[in-house]
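Reposting from the mailing list since nobody answered there.

I have sequence plus structure tokens for a pair of proteins and want to know whether others read the tokens the same way I do. The first protein:
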Amino acid sequence: MKPCWAEAMRRPALAVLAAISLSACAGIGAPPAAERPNAAPNAVQVSQQQGGRFIVLAGPKRRHAEPYLGIASTNFDLLRSFIDTRNGGVAHQLYVQDSYGGPTRNWNAARLATGQSLRFLPITVSEVTCENGCSYAEEFAAALPEPLLRASPQGLAVFFTSRSGNEKTIVVPPDLIAQQLAAVAEARAARPAAVAAPTPAPAAPR
């Protein structure tokens, strides 16, 4: 499946930069649009997926690389959390969008600095164009257990590796972890009692 900006990438670069806004892309893999249109850009954005089954909390976007072809909505990462409204279970992720030129990277693993493996969540690998050299867009995530987040007041670093031998380190600062956990607690408190008591993490949408 190609991202919604894939066809536009086939146009001349200047037209691409003028016409494309990736924030308009919609899809279950991409961070959800906020239900609060006037929310501050650095606030945790709250939305719903799958007909309200999941409350989705997406933290502020941060850059892990320069925007690809100057397109602002590429090469970013963020924390996101899924609350299962049926039982209160929560799943946390470090979500990454990676756009690049050259051979496909096929990101496939994640770990902590201690060597502890994290569950890697592949989302999409999309060929954007191969007219003048190939370009790709990948979406993927690492599952972050809540006990790990709560035990990381100093922040944490997640190391991603790919089948092609690429490596990427994303550092999650402590203030973003605290902000995310506070937003999850607030969302739980605002929901019915059935949602307030956490249970084992649900199988969150990718």
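The second protein, same order (residues first, tokens after):
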Amino acid sequence: MQNLGGVRDEAGTLNYLERNLAHWAEHGFGLWMLRDRGSGGMIGRAVLRHLEVEGVDEVETGYGFLPEHWGRGLATEVARAGIQVGRTRLGLHSVVAITLPANRASQRVLLKAGMVYQREINHEGLRHLLFRTNGDGGEQSLE
């Protein structure tokens, strides 16, 4: 959770749940819980949801996994699936993703998933890096 806003208290968790349920009710897509095929245990989450980026309504793909499931390519698989659903089922021209500048692993995942770095943005009071699926947005180097 260090790269996803930190651990939430009970009120924060309830607010997060309510927002995600409302998103599903309004749009018919949103947050999915991911389970291990063998054990059925929860291993992480995936998201495809509306996100306001500097006053523009975008749809973001995202993921989060328990640490014991890192390094298996699951994040890349989930990011690609989010992009595919956004394009084929929702008819989107573009899907975005954001990550904190220090989260180099997530940046690598987004690049492997076919996204390109676009620019820095301010999201919820923090500097984030914005990635996008198409090459129409003035991409810049991460270096």
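Reply #1 (J.P.):
I read it the same way you do. Confidence is low (pLDDT under 50) at residues 137-141.
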